[in-house]
Amino acid sequence: MQVEVRLKIKKDSNLYRYLRENSYWYKYLNRNPIYIKQLEEEMKEKYRLRSVDKIENISNTMKMLQSFLEIMK
């Protein structure tokens, strides 16, 4: 695996954890370092770190607060 790829993985704890959980990615990264982008996308999807997921999380929180306030009335 190339040094740049290793450094990028070590810097991002989520990426490192995902790689440890899904070791088949080592094979792809050793063969072609371009796969790091796909690895990141897959990791963000699994851990719900995409911007769409964050917006959804905020929306769910707002709905929960709204329902809590309605109950308190």
Give the total of domains: 1
- Beta-strand segment tally: 0
Number of helices: 5
Distance between the termini: 60 Å
Q: Into which percentage range does the β-strand content fall?
A: under 5%
What shape does the CA trace take?
rod-shaped
In the predicted model, the low-confidence regions spanning at least 5 consecutive residues are: none
**Which secondary-structure class do the elements indicate?**
mainly alpha
Largest sheet: none
Write down the Rg: 18 Å
Summed over residues and divided by their number, the pLDDT gives a mean of 95
N-to-C series of helices and strands? HHHHH
Residues in helices, as a percent range: over 70%
Describe this structure in words.
- This protein has about 70 residues and is an all-alpha fold.
- The chain has 5 helices and no strands.
- The longest helix is centred in the last third of the chain and has 22 residues, at about 50-70.
- The protein starts with a helix and ends with a helix.
- The model has no long low-confidence stretch (mean pLDDT about 95).
List the helices and strands and how they pair.
Layout: H1 3-11, H2 13-21, H3 24-31, H4 36-46, H5 51-72
